[in-house]
Amino acid sequence: MQQQLIARLQQLKPIPVEDQELIVKAFEPMRVKEGDMLLPMRSVARQLFFITNGVLRIMAQNDKGSEVTYFFLKENQFCTILYSFNNNTTAEESIQAACDTELLVISKNNLLALYEKLPYLKGMIDQISQHTLMEKIKTRNAYLGYDSSERYRLFLERQPEVALRVSLADIASYLGVTPQSLSRIRKNIRRG
Description:
The chain is of the alpha+beta class. Helices cover 49% and strands 21% of the residues. Strands 1-8-3-6 form a 4-stranded antiparallel beta sheet. A 4-stranded antiparallel beta sheet has the order 2-7-4-5.
């Protein structure tokens, strides 16, 4: 698990072996089951997660009280509610395991201590986080202007590995349709 994290970081630049050891020791392995809440809504994000296997979803409640999935994050991505994590503020979003997931986790305090020892690491993690954020926005924007059937087709095209692992209810909430509508859409696509 830890080598996956090191490999992801080294996509940006080589990391000396002694620094790799510090990084590996700072992150704790964690396994969560589908549905487990990693960050409840209206709490402060105090952990940074690195996904080694599985899918997490970032979600919130809409004004009607229904859950809405904003994003799915998968292997080799960092996950937290960045604004809450950086500013010690309450998050309106929550983080939940969308399927059984394996993670590496580090507390904010331990991450700041690691940055003290390895100042270049902050730039690397910030760069990966920025890239992930841009990808999330790009993916989300790709669905704008399409009807629900087209959004589902695009989702299958753009995120097939997520589609195979998360519940239909989570996909429906992500696409902004009811589970019943998604069921009809899926039947029509199979027939067509």
